Amino acid sequence: MNKPIIGMVPSITDDLRSYTLYVRYAKAIEIAGGIPLALPYVSEEEDLKAVLDKCDGLLLPGGDDVDPAYFNEEILNETVTLTQQRDKFEMPLIKLAVELKKPLLAICRGIQIVNVTFGGDLYQDLPTQLNVKHHPSGRPEYTGHTVVFKEGSYLAKLFGSQSVFTNSYHHQAIRRVPECLTVVGNCEEDGVIEALVMENHPYFVCVQWHPEITIASDGPSRMLFDDFIEHCKSCNC
Fold first, then answer.
1. What is the pLDDT of residue 136?
2. Which end of the chain has a smaller Cβ tally under 10 Å, C or N?
């Protein structure tokens, strides 16, 4: 069977002159058996569909914060950094991926933009609003917390466990969740939402941690990417 092509959304610089994307996302896709493809920003709906039609799955990587204007708030403080062009590109892309039933894996910013796209909102800064710190000073592959999964949920079944230790590197988090998404994982220490799924979609998994960083050394990280790629291989979309 041919390897599936996985579209990845890069960030874009404020001057619109270049895209940026950590190589570790592409490497994780390769390790799991896929072919990574960085997507160009296109604005026309037909062009967006043409781009997504070339992909067997979609990966939404981490990046800057989502513009709080999308959930009717002003920027909270100086910790909030935006990439507004990425918001404008990514939100219709996510909706189209759902329409076309493309397998989707969202990581860090990815889970946040998904939540906002469908009408949810965010804590703009966890230390300020909840007195919670999920953005340690150490390297994210070495620091983290335990995520507890909803009993019987997709991720609990995938990992064969009600909890896994995950790395952590984010200052924003999910607050209000729209009806189309289901919370399946929370931080054990403070209850912060760490995993969402869309249950009526063939494969739609969103996590707040960074499995792409630890895929080579962590079993659950490898399981998550392997599972995503397997669904992309069998996608008839």
1. 76
2. N
Write down the catalytic residue from 108, 187, 206, 232. Answer: 108
4 close to 229: Cβ distance less than 8 angstroms: yes
Predicted pLDDT at 14: 87
Q: pLDDT per residue over 194-219, tens digit each? A: 999 999 999 999 999 999 999 999 99
Specify whether 210 is catalytic: yes
Could you give the CA distance from residue 164 to residue 9 in angstroms, rounded to a whole number? 27
Kindly list the structural domains of the chain, giving each domain's residue range(s) and its CATH number in brackets, ordered by start: 5-233 (3.40.50.880)
212 tagged catalytic: yes
Sign of CA dihedral 191, 176, 156, 6: negative
| Model confidence at 135: pLDDT above 90 | no
Distances (CA, A) of 42 to 9, 50, 219: 12, 10, 36
Report the pLDDT averaged over residues 96-110. 98
Kindly report the three-state secondary structure assignment for every residue of 80-146: CCECHHHHHHHHHHHHHHHHCCCCEEEECHHHHHHHHHCCCCEECCHHHHCCCCCCCCCCCCCCEEE
Verify whether residue 170 is a known catalytic residue. no
